[in-house]
Amino acid sequence: MSAKFDTRPGVSSAILLLIACPLLAQMTPAQRLADAFVLEKEGKPAPAIVELQALLNSSSLDVLGSGKAWNILGLAYEDLGDFTLSQHAYEESLRILESLPSNIQDYAMALNDFGGLYVTTGQFEIADKMRMKVLGIYEKVEDHGGIARTCGDLAGIAFSQKQVARGSKYVERAVKEARLANDLDGDDRVAIASLQGWKAQLDGDVTMSVVSYRQALDLSRKLHGEEHPSTGWGYLLLGEAHAEANQLTNALGEMRQGVAVLDRTLSRLNPRYLVAEMAYSRVLDATGSHAEAARIKASAETLLKDVYRKQCAGCTISAVAFH
Q1: What's the pTM value of the predicted model, to 2 decimals?
Q2: What is the pLDDT of residue 312?
């Protein structure tokens, strides 16, 4: 869509919809769904939700389109930090898509995305089981792109739990499968470069970690520009790598910039933003700004606990994911 949307929390959904209406009237439901997905990928979940809800309420999508719409809605609510609504959307998507055996890859994609919600809420064992199921589906249909993405996601789960050897094997396979795939996009390449940086970081290879994270950041800036969560996160990861290399001046500047981008592109109650603030506070502390670091850390930790307490009260293990 050519219109520029304000994605700040609290902006009226009705206003967003009115802005979009002149264009929406000229578009098919499938085109509107594709544009909603673009909005989500561009880091604009609020207008994406407005459009997706309008599409679903209109009953203008076919069954497959409805399943995809619910999946994108799950991603968008997750980006806004509303885990309960995100889980509901993913469950609806899987319920619809599992009835379409000829579209097994769409089901696998939704299941993999649902696994991401469990990663966000720290339920790594559940996320791992879900994504292992996804990997089996992609292997069965020989979908190299799907295998590459899922192996990358499994590597992330392993690295989050300091399972370096297991994660490294998944990174190696992701890179191998990526060479055989013909449907990977720029975001997939950003993810692989970031994983290579993470692997190098855990291996103690600080130089390679900096190189890989810089590559991921450059790819994200070229793909999305400065004002995108992926770019903000890229600055943050590069800053952490420079901090480990004891290049604190570079680290502080990059992490300050990363937090600023995430502040503008995510809700301040989004867990990723709060985790970013905590990482930034560690570098501040290392540079001697102890009081400011302690203030930022305490605020972020309190808010993060509050977010999880409020949102995860309704986050249960979904039986739909294991059908």
Answers
A1: 0.85
A2: 56
